[in-house]
Amino acid sequence: MVRQISILILLLTSVLLIPGGCSAESMENAYSNSRLASSANASTNTMSNSPESSNAESTQSSKAGNEKILVVYYSLTGNTKDIANIIKNETGADIFEIKSEFDYYRKDVEEVVKKHLSEGYKPKLTSSLHNIDQYDLIFVGAPVWWFSVPPPVMSFLSQYELKGKKVVPFCTCGSDYGDFFKQFENECSDAELLKSISFTKNQLSKKDNVKKDIIEWLKEIGIKK
Ligand SMILES: Cc1cc2nc3c(=O)[nH]c(=O)nc-3n(C[C@H](O)[C@H](O)[C@H](O)COP(=O)(O)O)c2cc1C
Q1: Torsion of CA 200, 203, 204, 206, to 10 degrees
Q2: Vertex 127, ends 122 and 129: CA angle to 5°?
Q3: What pLDDT sits at residue 4?
Q4: Between the N and C ends of the chain, which has fewer C-beta atoms within 10 Å?
């Protein structure tokens, strides 16, 4: 019931704020007024379209201790991308953006995503990672879509072998991540999942705290001293 009410609020907000198009600004307002402006109480949790073939964008020192780290993310309006970049900067990780052949940047995104999720549709990805074997620890971040993991991220999780690797999920959402982490966990049952983190729209709006929360979390999971 609570979930139905919150999704109704999300949809009403989007109807009010996306009257005639799918500009970056309208998408942003509809779901996340907050682009990393950040968070006093981020929650942690225990547990384009032309084909592109690329390796992860490399930094000079993508190692913490002996572990080589990668940050993988999918982001439609930029919130998750901002978090991914903070994690990258704080850990010296390489970074990789998941890109989907299906362009979700559209006015009817809610309906389309709802349909795709119910069908278990996994879009073809147009960015690819050739060197995943070299990474010991992989952060994977996404926006929450209908309380779930977005289809392009489901494609990523089923396409790449994460067995034996440490995987750290993170997400951004309007207000409720629902089954996101449960679903993520089911898709990565062979990996060693570390404690996740999530940021709501409100948390994202308290910019100064986001970085602080991320640093604390990285220390807690043993990635940063
Ligand atoms: C299709 C769609 C469905 C969404 N469903 C939810 C949801 O179930 N719960 C929620 O709290 N936010 C929901 N949101 C809001 C996004 O999760 C939130 O704005 C997120 O920070 C966007 O991340 P991004 O900027 O990286 O794309 C939804 C947004 C879209 C476009």
Answers
A1: 170
A2: 100
A3: 60
A4: N
Q: Is 77 in the pocket of ligand 1 (CB under 6 A)?
A: yes
Evaluate whether the domain defined by 36-220 bears CATH number 3.40.50.11540. no
Pull the structure tokens for residue 52.
């592109």
Q: Is 144 in the pocket of ligand 1 (CB under 6 A)?
A: yes
What stretches of the chain show up as alpha helix (H) in DSSP? Answer: 2-17, 24-32, 79-91, 109-119, 151-159, 180-187, 201-204, 207-220
Contact call for residues 172 and 202 (beta carbons, < 8 A): no
Model confidence pLDDT, tens digit, residues 61-102: 455 667 899 999 999 999 999 999 999 999 999 999 999 999
197 close to 144: Cβ distance less than 8 angstroms: no
- Pocket flag, ligand 1, residue 146 (CB < 6 Å): yes
Would the CB of 143 count as within 6 Å of ligand 1? yes
Hey, what are 139's tokens? 């952060």
Sequence spans of domains, the chain: 36-220
Q: How far is the CA of 146 from the centre of ligand 1 (A)?
A: 7
State the pLDDT at residue 147: 98
Residue nearest to atom 3 of ligand 1 (CA): 145
